[in-house]
Every structure is written in structure tokens, then in C-alpha cells.
Amino acid sequence: MANVIFIAPPAAGKGVQSELLQTNYKMLHVSTGDLLRQEVATETELGGQIKLLMEQGLLVSDEIVISLLTKKLKQSDLSQGYILDGFPRTIEQAQRLDQLTKEIKAEIDYVFFLSVDKDIALKRALGRVTCSNCGTIYNEYFDTFVTPGVCNKCNSILVKRNDDNEEIFSRRFDEYLTKSKPLIDYYIDKGIFHEIDSSKDIMNAFNQIKNIIDKDITHD
Ligand code: AMP
């Protein structure tokens, strides 16, 4: 059983590593973005306030996020561990998380920082294409195609999601690293920080994570 946080710049592979942890260890995936989107869907007054902030890409107040997170963690079966996605984003949130996880006896065991070279992350982000029919995601730079521009599975056209251009991606990437620096230092001090080289393929990064978790499990 392990409780995990990822710190990962855009296109470092957080989504896919979370899925692998879920599949392999049956961990619960808790995303504060999803919790907030669920609240928006209820169309309550609170949901309306959250929607306005999210639409502008602003952070929702700590009070709201923490109350939703507390409710979710307290209601859920955490016996197989959990992955926290999108939280904490600030030192204040990290401190509140410490209090909460202590209270529910489910403290964070591992903070995995997925490090990736910016040019590789850029290729991953800009090369991303999705099948217009079956939704399969490919990468123009890394995958091979039977027919270029066409889905290998269902022969439909592949389309690009164009909210990422090089300049915007580069800015988001740099901003993320600057903003996450204090969090990284916070978790280094706590002795639960692990840097994972996520520049190679998916399974290479996952095996690094798995080695760390499994080493502790076998020593339990
Ligand atoms: P995400 O799905 O993690 O990209 O989050 C989507 C949006 O939800 C963010 O842009 C914020 O508006 C809000 N959000 C998610 N997590 C947090 C958090 N830990 N603190 C404040 N706002 C958050």
C-alpha cells in the first residue's frame, strides 16, 4: 500500500504513470480538478463560483478544494493506497495535506518528480494526435503508422488538438518548474522525494517508480 503524489511538468507523462499505478497496485486516483468539475456539474451556487475561476485558469480557494478533498478521502476505501492528482499546488496546500493525511492515518509515502528534457516534452505535446473516430492517442514523432495521418486501428483521420503551440508550451513548462520548486524543496526536506527520469519510454519511468515502491513493500 502506498500513497503517492506526482510533481510533473506538462507532457512529462503524469497521466499514463497514474494509470499504470492504478492498474498495477489498485490505487485510488483522486484528482482535485475532477472533484471540482463534479461540483460544477451539480449546478449549485458553489459550483457556479468554481466554474468562473476554472474557466479563467485561476486557482480555486484552498477552503473549497480542501473541503472537497477531505470529504473524498474520508469517504473512500484507501486500503490499497491513493494517487493525488493536482494537489498540492502550493506550500500552504502541502501543509494542510499533512494535517489531513495525519488525521485520517493515510500519510503521503512518495512524491515522484517526473523529470523530462524540455525538448522531449515539447515533441510529446506537439506531436500528439487523436483518432477522430475511436479516440486512440498517438504521437507523430514516436509512433509508426500504416498510413500517415490515419488511425492504425480503425482507419479514421487523426486530428491535432491545437491548444499547444511551441511558445505557449515553452512558457507553461518554465512556469511549472519555477512554481513547483518550493514544493520540491518541501518534500526533499521531508525525505519522501524521488526524481524519476521520464525522458525515455513509459515503461522505463514506470519501472523506476515500481522499484522504489516494491523495495519498501518487500521490507514491510
Ligand atoms: P487540473 O484538472 O488539475 O488541471 O485542474 C483544473 C482546474 O481546477 C485548475 O486550473 C484550477 O482552477 C482548479 N484546481 C485543481 N486543483 C486545484 C488545487 N489544488 N488548488 C486550487 N485549484 C485547483
Write the layout of secondary structure elements.
Blueprint: E1 2-7, H1 14-25, E2 28-31, H2 32-41, H3 45-55, H4 62-75, E3 81-85, H5 91-103, E4 110-115, H6 118-126, E5 128-131, E6 137-139, E7 158-160, H7 166-190, E8 193-197, H8 202-219
Helix pairs in contact: 1-8, 2-3, 6-7
Please, could you describe this protein's structure?
There is one protein chain. The chain is an alpha/beta fold and 220 residues long. The chain has one domain (2-117, 165-219): P-loop containing nucleotide triphosphate hydrolases (Rossmann fold), CATH 3.40.50.300. The chain contains eight helices and eight strands, in the order βαβαααβαβαβββαβα. The protein has helices at residues 14-25, 32-41, 45-55, 62-75, 91-103, 118-126, 166-190, 202-219; strands at 2-7, 28-31, 81-85, 110-115, 128-131, 137-139, 158-160, 193-197. The strands form two sheets. Strands 2-3-1-4-8 form a five-stranded parallel beta sheet, sandwiched between helices. It has a three-stranded antiparallel beta sheet with strand order 6-5-7. The structure holds adenosine monophosphate.
